[in-house]
Amino acid sequence: MRAVCAIFGVLAICAVALCQGQGVPYPFRAVIPQPATFSWDQANTANVTLAQRNKFTFQLAGIKSSVVLKDAFGRYLAFLFDSPYDVPATGVPQITTVNVQVQSDDESLFLGVDESYSMTVQAPSSTIIANTVFGALRALETFAQLVDYATNMTIAGTPIKITDAPRFAWRGLMIDTSRHYLPVPLIMHILDAMSFHKFNTMHWHIVDEASFPLEVAQFPLLSQKGAWSPRAIYKAGDIKSIVDYAYLRGIRVVPEVDMPSHTRSWGNGYPDIMPNCSKSTYYGTEPGLDPTKAQTFQVISGILSELSQLFPDPYMHLGGDEVNSACYQEDAALNQWMQSHGMGANYTLLLQYFVDNVKPIYTTLKKNLVCWSDLVYYSDTVDKETAIVQAWRARGDAISLTKLGYKTINSAGWYLDVQQPGSAHYAWIDTWTDFYNYDPTVNMTAQELSLFVGGEACMWGEAVDRINWDQRVWPRASPLAERLWSPATVTDINNMAQRMVQFRCQTLVRRGISAEPITPDWCSYEF
């Protein structure tokens, strides 16, 4: 019979040890990401517990009120107490109050907002101190993960002291709603799971070649003829609901309408903005928008202007990857235009022309550019002061981009759709070890590291939809939350594996996330 052990490359961890959390600081056996610094009373083997729900409160101090924390207090009361299977222990000291002290009443959410916090956990009163409501939000998540729901909602080793802050400002997950439409409730479900990991950026790859699920009032045929179905279109009200939902969880939403490539779906409604080429070439490659047409930039301006009103974040993703010149080469009128403008047959110059005409739209809308790394290799006018470039093609690209002086986020090595992101594995789920082990900042100079903003896990949508999203993403993306939040020195994969088992059960499954197991274990919340 097969051994009752999960094999992670050369690492073998017995399932029993995983379930018992051996080798992990006991109060933190289900905490992901690991806090920056923490201490607990290792001599105190007695537990404390939470008071009954009607005797337990979160109390706000330092500011009069908070929209973010009012919503969060209600959510976390539900997370703590709404499971009918979890009952606080009796006969032990009880935590009756968590005092949440916030220094600033500014609830603006932006890249680089202060998410730091400190916390003392003890009975009868615990304390959270944060500069902003978003730091307090991250502290509430840590507090909820310290509770051992399997042992009557106890917390061991008090007093526990934590001082915590993220390593990087951009900690994201990319979702793709073009290859498969993701219903609005599912996107909100994804945002919930992201918040459990302290992810703070949802990169929404809304549109691609497969479909155009975004309603654009100025150009209605884009979605009317480009979406999979009239039922598979995001309207302004849907987007507002998603953005508002994300905000309350401390998550920025950065939209992407990929261009000039990956735009075949645009041509269903507006064929004149696409190059004229043979059917085999058009459908066999990724045709790009036709930059020689004024209408092309009118459509782009219409899309981006509406996006700028729907998404308050100052960053919008332009895409810019995988431009294929095959269709351009076949279009006689396009090539004649290039000749008359002194470009000859140099399609890199055509792409530079495209970027030069899109940049003023961003400037007018007061938005900052985010792009895939391809764009900076065919355009030398990407603003290094304001733009952020996303590395994706190969490990090491983040170093190359920062060497060139670009602010950079990394996704190379962190593609969740890839079956072999690093070493070969027996089981799909074990790819999480590759994601955890890869730190793109290793070997960066101090100057390069100063330009590294963070990173994203990317879940491309060819093979995921509402049915299998949770199992494909969670907990494989959990290690990336830790890689982007915790200090660079947090690298013990054995420790991480043990915490993932408990975190997957007590946080993800318990709160309704259908996360895949990583090893044989027992999680009562499945039943």
Helix count equals 19
Ranges with pLDDT <50 over ≥5 residues?
1-22
Strand content: 15-25%
SS-based class:
alpha/beta
- How would you sum up the major sheet? 8 strands, parallel, barrel
- Bulk shape: elongated
Name the average pLDDT.
Answer: 92
User: Helix fraction?
Assistant: 25-40%
Overall radius of gyration: 25 Å
How far from one another are the termini?
A: 26 Å
Topology, number of strands: 19
For the largest sheet, list the strands in their spatial order.
Answer: 12-13-14-15-16-17-18-19
Keywords:
527 residues; alpha/beta; 6-stranded mixed β-sheet; disordered N terminus
What's the quick description here?
This protein is α/β, with parallel strands linked by helices. It is built from 19 helices and 19 strands.
Notes on the structure:
- It is elongated, with a radius of gyration of 25 Å.
- The protein has 19 helices and 19 strands.
- The strands form four sheets. The chain has an eight-stranded parallel β-barrel with strand order 12-13-14-15-16-17-18-19, surrounded by five helices.
- The protein is of the alpha/beta class.
- The N terminus is likely disordered.
- Helix 14 links the parallel strand 17 and strand 18.
List the helices and strands and how they pair.
Blueprint: E1 5-8, E2 11-14, H1 15-20, E3 37-39, E4 48-50, E5 57-61, H2 67-81, E6 94-95, E7 97-102, E8 117-121, E9 125-130, H3 133-146, E10 154-155, E11 160-164, E12 170-176, H4 184-196, E13 201-207, H5 221-226, H6 236-247, E14 252-259, H7 264-269, H8 279-284, H9 294-310, E15 315-319, H10 326-330, H11 332-340, H12 347-365, E16 368-372, H13 374-378, E17 388-391, H14 397-403, E18 407-410, H15 432-437, H16 446-450, E19 452-459, H17 469-473, H18 478-485, H19 493-509
Parallel strand pairs: 4-6, 5-7, 7-9, 12-13, 12-19, 13-14, 14-15, 15-16, 16-17, 17-18, 18-19
Antiparallel strand pairs: 1-2, 3-11, 4-10, 8-9, 8-11
